[in-house]
Amino acid sequence: VQLKEQPYYTLELFPECRVGLLLFDEVRNAAQLRQQVLKGNLPAILDPIQVLAAVNKAVHNHRLQKMKTHGLYSEIIYNLSPSKSITESFRRFGITDNDTSLLVITVDLGGGKGCDGGTDDPGIGAKLAASVEGRQLPIGELSLLTDVCKIKKFYKVTEEEERLGGLLDAVVCRMAIREAL
């Protein structure tokens, strides 16, 4: 796979952190990749903002040592879900053997500290992406791989909510208030 430049985002509350997002379609080796690392399942991802909200919450919980899961990447997957069930979160957002589209998420916590407590490998996104047998897409094409009906059903978004604030706002609000429900 010839890699395009990976877009990086910074988290407003954690400006030293860099988040990379790589989008792939026509993936032929999902089963092999699943054994390597967990990544985001696309039909339920609407926008990079949704992912960044989950990453922000995961980094915050990581810094406070209050994660619900055992690792930062699994915490990101958990935080994408409106459900308090870790198993349900992985079922909805984890990679399956038959997936043909996926979003690779990399997080650099800054200061040379990796997500697992070890040192960061700045080329981890490129290494992961190089093992994907598929076509890399610009992150702006994420919405083309999204199943809006699934998102509305999974997040239980009403027509009124969507009309008043938009689907993305409703989804991010569900993610944010999960612990309060």
Write a short abstract of this structure.
The chain has about 180 residues and is α+β, with helices and mostly antiparallel strands.
CATH architecture type? 2-Layer Sandwich
Please state the overall shape, judged from the principal axes of the Cα atoms: globular
Q: What top-tier CATH class fits best? A: Alpha Beta
The structure class reads alpha+beta
- Compute the number of structural domains: 1
CA distance, first residue to last residue = 43 Å
Name given to the CATH homologous superfamily = CGI121/TPRKB
Major sheet size, sense and barrel closure: 5 strands, antiparallel
Task: Kindly report the CATH topology.
Answer: PF0523-like
Number-wise, the strands total 5
Radius of gyration over all CA atoms, rounded: 16 Å
Family: Belongs to the CGI121/TPRKB family.
Subcellular location: Nucleus
Main location: nucleus
Organism: Eptatretus burgeri (Inshore hagfish)
